[in-house]
């Protein structure tokens, strides 16, 4: 499936947003990709809450309809006082907004194309509009669409209310240089509670393009004090990362290593036979996959394959799993992706590996956060996304912004990133402590650790 992008120019989008308030638009349906049929429209746009139709014609008009109600194919007339028709064109400085005629319904909830009376879209399953001004809405044909009823494109967006800012943040963060230095020191001075393990091993896993590789680059940049791009990041239809990579981080150029290994994986995809294979993931959890292993689309790495690492120690295992998801997609992941997450979580739970949800691209998700990152815990929208996401306990959810276009590191971005790392180290330590306790109880020891080694494994302060 090709990457689906909006046909709205920046100017058209800004004009449309000026009619809708503080919202973000999520493209649900694009007729040139999904088909100019009512069936294609309904399969993507029914029960999506508030939506806006955006129709394009070759006369240069962008016009359509907003409704705050669902399409459900109920065959009933839907009353919606908030509904309106609109038109944007180079001819007018401000968009035209047409409210409904008092007492008339906004649209008839039919199984054909969206029917607003005065404008019926996808008329007869064609790239066309039927125009009858005076039916529910009143306008001049020339103002609405320049009398050009053939469509060159037809899109529908879900309209997501971004809300405002909370007066009090729901999580307290000190946005000061002292805090950044404290976080850096705490991370650099971290010592795993098991002596034979020198670095916490944290796995990044998540959908294609979620920002896994960028997270490593961002942490590396934060410690180096300048932009780094060791892990290849970018946007593509399938995962840009195709190898398993274990990255260490240098505190400064030529300096000592941060006691953290970030493991980057290929992205997850909806289809069962695409993207990272869950069997490979379990091998990674258990430390059997080596750095630079090239993931294969023909199947997972088998235990008798040459690259399979048979003898593993606690250091090779994953100590904390970090699910990386884009903030604005967290609550609308496809069912197939959700099912994959359930399977991945189940496996991590069975192995007792602590898990964190890293919600990336907060700057993209909410313009108020894009303007000022300090709004991250005050944005009503981000809070909503955190609460609705994947059923992970709230204290395990960490919103971040990765470096993506900056040329220099920035204090607030670093603070959010380093706070996430500090949490990952705490969780990794919980895992390591549990491993030792389980070994003492003889529950499920690592093959290379036995109870006679336990006292030697523990750091003096945890003895
Ligand atoms: N604005 C913004 N862009 C981001 C952020 N994180 C990542 N990006 C961009 O998102 C795109 C994908 O990022 P990657 O780090 O390559 O994502 P990935 O999860 O490693 O993707 P695959 O390796 O393809 O699975 C890149 O263009 C990044 O610059 C973020 O926090 N904010
Ligand atoms: Mg990647």
Structure characterization notes:
Residues 441-463 have low confidence and may be disordered. This protein has helices at residues 10-20, 31-34, 38-45, 141-144, 177-188, 212-224, 278-285, 335-350, 362-365, 367-371, 380-388, 411-440, 454-457, and strands at residues 23-30, 51-56, 62-67, 77-78, 84-88, 96-99, 107-108, 119-121, 129-131, 153-161, 200-205, 243-250, 257-264, 293-294, 320-326, 355-360, 397-399. The chain starts with 9 loop residues before the first helix and ends in a 6-residue tail after the last helix. Strand 15, helix 8 (335-350) and strand 16 (355-360) form a beta-alpha-beta unit. The strands form four sheets. Strands 14-12-13-11-15-16-17 form a seven-stranded mixed beta sheet. Strands 1-10-2-3-5-6 form a six-stranded antiparallel beta sheet, sandwiched between helices. Strands 4-7 form a two-stranded antiparallel ribbon. With 463 residues, the chain is an alpha+beta fold. It is built from 13 helices and 17 strands. It has two domains: 10-161, no CATH class; 177-462, P-loop containing nucleotide triphosphate hydrolases (Rossmann fold, 3-Layer(aba) Sandwich). Bound molecules: guanosine-5'-triphosphate and magnesium ion. The site of guanosine-5'-triphosphate (GTP) has 22 residues, from helix 6 and helix 9. Belongs to the IFI44 family.
């Amino acid at each position: 499936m090709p990457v689906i992008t909006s046909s709205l120019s920046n100017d058209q989008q800004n004009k449309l947003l000026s009619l809708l308030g503080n919202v973000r638009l999520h493209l649900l349906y694009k007729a040139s990709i999904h088909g100019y049929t009512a069936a294609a429209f309904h399969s993507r746009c029914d029960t999506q809450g508030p939506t806006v139709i955006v129709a394009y014609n070759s006369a240069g008009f962008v016009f359509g309809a907003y409704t705050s109600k669902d399409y459900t194919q109920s065959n009933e007339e839907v009353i919606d006082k908030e509904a309106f028709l609109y038109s944007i064109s180079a001819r007018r400085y401000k968009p035209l907004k047409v409210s409904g005629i008092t007492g008339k319904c906004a649209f008839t909830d039919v199984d054909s194309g969206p029917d607003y009376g005065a404008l019926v879209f996808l008329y007869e399953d064609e790239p066309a509009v039927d125009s009858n001004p005076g039916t529910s809405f009143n306008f001049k044909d020339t103002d609405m669409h320049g009398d050009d009823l053939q469509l060159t494109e037809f899109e529908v967006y879900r309209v997501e209310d971004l809300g405002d800012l909370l007066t009090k943040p729901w999580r307290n963060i000190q946005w000061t240089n002292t805090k950044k230095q404290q976080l850096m020191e705490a991370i650099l001075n971290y010592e795993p509670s098991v002596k034979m393990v020198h670095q916490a091993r944290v796995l990044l896993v998540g959908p294609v393009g979620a920002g896994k590789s960028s997270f490593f680059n961002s942490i590396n940049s934060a410690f180096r004090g300048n932009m780094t791009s060791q892990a290849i990041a970018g946007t593509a239809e399938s995962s840009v990362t195709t190898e398993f990579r274990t990255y260490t981080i240098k505190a400064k150029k030529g300096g000592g290593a941060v006691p953290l290994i970030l493991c980057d994986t290929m992205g997850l995809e909806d289809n069962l036979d695409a993207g990272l294979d869950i069997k490979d993931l379990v091998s990674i959890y258990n430390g059997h996959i080596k750095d630079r292993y090239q993931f294969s689309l023909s199947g997972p790495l088998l235990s008798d394959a040459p690259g399979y690492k048979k003898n593993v120690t606690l250091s090779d295992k994953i100590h904390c799993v970090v699910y990386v998801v884009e903030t604005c997609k967290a609550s609308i992941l496809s069912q197939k992706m959700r099912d994959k997450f359930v399977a991945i979580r189940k496996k991590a739970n069975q192995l007792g590996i602590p898990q964190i949800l890293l919600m990336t691209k907060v700057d993209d998700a909410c313009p108020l956060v894009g303007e000022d990152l300090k709004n991250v815990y005050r944005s009503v929208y981000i809070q909503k996304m955190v609460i609705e996401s994947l059923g992970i306990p709230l204290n395990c959810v960490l919103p971040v912004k990765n470096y993506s276009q900056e040329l220099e590191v920035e204090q607030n971005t670093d603070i959010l990133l380093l706070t996430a790392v500090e949490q990952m180290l705490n969780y990794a330590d919980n895992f390591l402590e549990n491993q030792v306790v389980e070994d003492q109880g003889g529950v499920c020891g690592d093959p290379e650790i036995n109870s006679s080694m336990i006292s030697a494994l523990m750091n003096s302060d945890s003895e």
